Amino acid sequence: MASTQMNDPAVKALVEENSRLKRAIEELTILNDLARAIGALQNSEEIMQTVIRRSLRAVDAEQGVITLVDDKTDESMKTLVRTMVSSRDQQPFHLNQNLLGWMHINRKPLLISNPQDDPRFRGVKWDEAISTLLSVPLMAKSKLIGILTVYNKKSGKDFTDGDQRLLAIIAAQSAQIVENARLYEEEKSYLKLQHELGVAAIIQNNLLPEKMPGVHGYDIAGSSVAAQMVGGDYFDFIRIDESHLAFCLGDVAGKGLSAALLMANLQATLRGQAAITISARDCMQRSNKLLYHSTGSDRFVTCFYGVLNTDEHTLCFCNAGHDSPFLYSASDKPQRLSSDSLVLGMMEEFPYIEKTIPFNKGDVLVIFSDGVTEAKNIADEQFGEERLEKIIRQNLDASADSIIARITEAVREHMGKTEPMDDITMVVIKRQK
After folding, report:
1. What is the mean pLDDT of residues 350-367?
2. Residues 303-351 pLDDT 10s
3. CB contact at 8 A, 134 and 160
4. Distance separating alpha carbons of residues 106 and 100, to the nearest angstrom
5. Whole-number percent of the chain with pLDDT over 90
6. Lowest mean pLDDT: which of 6-15, 136-145, 244-253, 393-402?
7. Using CB atoms within 10 A of its CB, is residue 166 exposed (0-12), middle (13-18) or buried (19+)?
């Protein structure tokens, strides 16, 4: 009698419908439990671990992995995060890069039985223990953020179309939550970095001279405006003795925090060496050797270093690859102070050259970083040395502070709304008596 009822089409249809409803309820339970489990989490690693574990149970798989990809670089297939969970004590399978590439192109579920013989991946080498796999895209706002892949059913059978449909729903439900958690973590990291940069900017600002040196008969000023929160330019005044004042302007290769750290290193190095020698050449040679041993091969510093003898009114200087400063004397055409020496930190040993020149009454020395002359406007035109020389010549009778202020104003007017690409640093020394 029971056999007869089972053969009845109506009874058979009812049994199938009950089975379908049971599966639907089970799937809804899985999805509901998953939503509750990950909805309260904010850590992306914990969210992904939970998604994988629930996925393994849902499709009875041995191992699963979520691989997030980085779309912020030119390498669109670069792995950003990889989280794996295994239900058995075994070596984790390696995500095949070809699988990631296939998902970038197709962006739809992929079910593979016997991967070694799959025509879509001909010639691709898979882990031998992988007998079947199921991979689905993680899509957030129509953007592929990663893939969820499970390997090998515990029963030894192949994954089914039902497994594929359920895993795709899990991925669709989880993707935005994973992405939101990742963005939240990125924002926290960014805010932490901004705070650290703010602290670094305060520290760096404290490394610059708090006030200008008071030297009888001289008007001296310096200024540095960083292009970013922290910069790589440095200027300083170092009193050696009653009649000798050392000063310098350095420009570290690069920008940002790494340049700022090297700038701090430069300050400590120069101050240490200036304390033990009056010679500009010796100071540069010793500083160069110390910087060479404490920096990488891609890091170097241009530096103009001078020692002003305020009794004899002479200037001894050494120019280590820096833009040649302008020295205005009686002649309308300025003298350029260059000593053809190598930048600091590039070679361990270099025979630096120093020159000594008179610093006469009325002389004006203007030292500047390339952030002044290379400042660009919206038409990509540099401010240039010709404009700089003109501004200085028009303001030779102004105070050292005023000369710097007027140059800075002219540079900003030239740039307009263009963001500065480099630090703007200057030192001006005038002999008044």
Report:
1. 94
2. 999 999 999 999 999 999 999 999 998 766 899 998 778 999 989 999 9
3. no
4. 10
5. 43
6. 6-15
7. buried
Contacts of 308 (CB under 8 A, 6+ apart): 215, 218, 244, 245, 246, 247, 314, 315, 359, 429
Fold (topology level) of 203-431: Phosphatase 2c; domain 1 (3.60.40)
Confidence category of residue 79, pLDDT binned at 50, 70, 90: very low
HSE toward the beta carbon, residue 276, CA cutoff 13 A: 10
Same fold for the domain at 2-182 and the one at 203-431? Answer: no
Superfamily for the 2-182 domain: GAF domain (3.30.450.40)
Whole-prediction pTM value? 0.63
Would you say 369 and 422 are in contact if contact means Cβ atoms under 8 Å apart?
yes
Residue 320 contacts residue 351 (beta carbons within 8 Å): no
- Give first-to-last CA distance, the chain, whole Å: 125
Q: Tokens for 45, please give them.
A: 């690693």
Which of 156-165's residues contact partners 24+ apart within 8 Å by CB, and which partners? 156/131, 158/111, 158/113, 158/132, 159/59, 159/61, 159/111, 159/113, 159/132, 159/133, 159/134, 161/111, 162/23, 163/58, 163/59, 163/111, 163/134, 164/109, 164/111, 164/134, 164/136
How far, in Å, CA of 377 to CA of 385, rounded?
Answer: 15
- Amino acid identity of 75? E
- In single-letter form, the type of residue at position 341 comes to S
Q: Residue 363 and residue 371: Cα distance in Å, rounded?
A: 24
User: Domain residues of the chain, as ranges?
Assistant: 2-182, 203-431
